[in-house]
Design a protein that fits this description.
Blueprint lengths: L12 H8 L3 E6 L2 E5 L1 H6 L5 H7 L27 H15 L2 E8 L5 E13 L2 E10 L1 H50 L3 H28 L7 E4 H6 L2 H8 L3 E6 L6 E4 L1 H17 L5 E12 L11 E10 L6 H6 L17 H11 L3 E6 L5 E8 L23 E5 L3 H13 L3 E5 L2 H10 L6 E5 L7 H11 L4 E6 L4 H7 L5 E4 L4 H14 L1
Parallel strand pairs: 7-9, 13-14, 13-15, 15-16, 16-17
Antiparallel strand pairs: 1-2, 1-5, 3-4, 4-5, 6-8, 9-10, 10-12, 11-12
Length: 525
């Protein structure tokens, strides 16, 4: 069958293909569109093809199409070039090269711009040069590509942040521990002025430790302890703290509804999430305003504003303010690490990145609604579970002696930390053996068979990691008690420990935390 051949019923099969194709197909003669199919009219959001032809007849016969490609486009393309001028160049390239494929921004009848992939194919009809044009809308594909690039960028920054936090935590162990020991010694000598200076060093170190926790939360290297948590109870306990944090010049309200609303989350992370949002909202209202924290339930369909979430019931924590608001460009970048709209030195740019990371770790998501001058609302969606929430009240800790006589092996590649831990344990009566890595630790255990009561080991070490060293140790010495020290434990390294009951001591830790953990493991395993 050749072009122009008609079927027995008089219909042209090629015309039928043109009219019924789901792709937008158009025809250009000279530099004007002269025909299009209904799919093109639909893509441009005209009620039908006749409505499009009525608007773009170009002064010609009624019901015909005569329009330059630039007339279906915004004045300029994303690269800044004028649409009419660039369209002429694209058509010229198609004739010179025998075809041309490129991306183009068109404008719908209602003014909305959208991106299409354009395929121009030149043909010759009765010695006239004609271009067959196919449009395929690629807005969703572009959005997914941007999401992928963003995810890859966040992953790269997360790895960098986690590595920095690991090294920083090792330094903070030494700084905080020595500051606490120094403060205690100065107080015993009644040198209170010097003791206050040591306290300032410790306070600065604790602020740095809080920053590294944010870095680790963002990079997902922070060990978390998710449990069934009632958000109503948790947020009720933050009411007083948030009121003091926000200040008297801001009208603060909290609306929590009826509980329990239970999610599986680490309570400390949810507290950090809410505090970060409230601090951001406070800073957006330097002249005062209104801040509201609302907790409610909602049902998500798969077509919700957070398309990555499964359908089901979610708890929504909404923090809204009457502050300066954000532009769309700022909203698009708000969850990126180190991006901030605050003045230099006024913020780390980790607040919203941490919120987003915590929400995703809990199986949820976060979104921002805002406009300039109209305030901002940040919503965090967390999946609701049916389990009974655990109590958030801290159990009473019995007073225990921090002294001992047992033999402890310490495996740590950072010499300063290794020496510090050895000193703190030795001063309390313990016999301490030290190793610079897992391989040396195994050799020393072999030389002291039956004498090691406890192994304290870093997770990440050269030659042989802590988890692998312990795995080999348990083959020949099952039941050996172990404490892992972690400054930056990836999910892979934590999984390698292989025992959810393993004791993990997070860096940076205070001397008393170390000594208490040691005594607890030795006495109770």
């Amino acid at each position: 069958m050749t072009w122009g051949t008609k079927l027995a019923d008089g219909n042209d099969p090629y015309r039928e293909l043109f009219e019924h194709s789901p792709d937008a197909i158009l025809v250009i003669e000279g530099d004007r569109f002269v025909d299009c199919n209904p799919a093109a009219a639909e893509m441009l959001r005209f009620p039908d093809k006749r409505a499009l032809l009525a608007r773009y007849s170009g002064g010609g016969e009624k019901g015909t199409l005569r329009a330059h490609p630039g007339e279906f486009s915004p004045p300029r393309q994303p690269d800044g070039r004028e649409s009419f001028e660039k369209a002429d160049e694209m058509m010229k390239i198609a004739f010179e090269q025998g075809g041309h494929r490129f991306e183009w921004e068109h404008e719908r009848a209602d003014g909305e711009c959208f991106t299409v992939e354009v395929l121009l194919t030149p043909v010759y009809r009765d010695q006239r040069r004609v271009l067959h044009v196919v449009w395929r809308e690629i807005g969703e594909r572009k959005r997914l590509e941007q999401e992928l690039r963003r995810a890859q960028r966040l992953e790269a920054v997360g790895r960098l942040a986690g590595g920095i936090a690991h090294d920083f935590n090792n330094l903070l162990v030494v700084i905080l521990s020595h500051a606490e020991l120094l403060q205690s010694e100065l107080q015993s000598l009644d040198a209170m002025d010097q003791a206050e200076r040591a306290a300032e060093i410790q306070a600065a170190g604790e602020r740095a430790a809080a920053l590294t926790r944010q870095l680790l939360t963002f990079s997902r290297g922070q060990p978390i302890q998710p449990k069934p948590t009632d958000l109503v109870e948790l947020l009720s306990g933050l009411d007083g703290l948030l009121g003091r944090l926000i200040g008297e010049d801001i009208d603060f309200a909290m609306k929590l509804g009826e509980g329990p609303i239970t999610v599986k989350a680490d309570p400390s992370q949810i507290e950090q999430l809410v505090i970060n949002l409230c601090v951001n909202a406070r800073d957006a209202m330097p002249g005062g305003g209104h801040l509201e924290v609302v907790l409610e339930r909602c049902l998500h369909a798969e077509s919700s504003e957070l398309p990555g979430l499964a359908a089901g019931e979610y708890a929504v924590i909404r923090v809204g303010d009457s502050g300066e608001g954000m532009s769309q460009e700022e909203i698009d970048r708000a969850f990126e690490p180190f991006f901030t709209t605050k003045t230099p030195g006024a913020g780390s740019g980790l607040g919203l990145a941490t919120v987003h990371a915590i929400a995703e770790q809990c199986g949820g998501g976060a979104l921002i609604q805002s406009s300039i001058g109209q305030g901002t609302s940040v919503q965090v969606h967390l999946p609701v579970i049916a389990a009974k929430p655990v109590t958030l009240a801290a159990p009473a800790v019995p007073s225990i002696s921090l002294r001992g006589h047992e033999t402890i092996l310490v495996a740590e590649d950072e010499e300063a930390i290794r020496n510090l831990v050895e000193s703190m344990l030795s001063q309390r009566g313990y016999r301490v053996i030290t190793a610079a890595d897992g391989a040396e630790a195994l050799d020393l255990i072999g030389q002291n068979v039956g004498e090691i009561d406890l192994v304290i080991t870093d997770v990440v070490m050269p030659r042989l990691s802590g988890p692998e060293m312990v795995r080999r140790l348990q083959i020949d010495h099952p039941g050996t008690k172990v404490i892992f020290m972690s400054g930056y434990a990836t999910q892979g390294s934590l999984a390698a420990i292989g025992d959810e009951r393993a004791e993990i001591l997070e860096k940076p830790f205070a001397p008393r935390v170390l000594l208490t953990t040691v005594r607890k493991v030795l006495d109770h395993g």
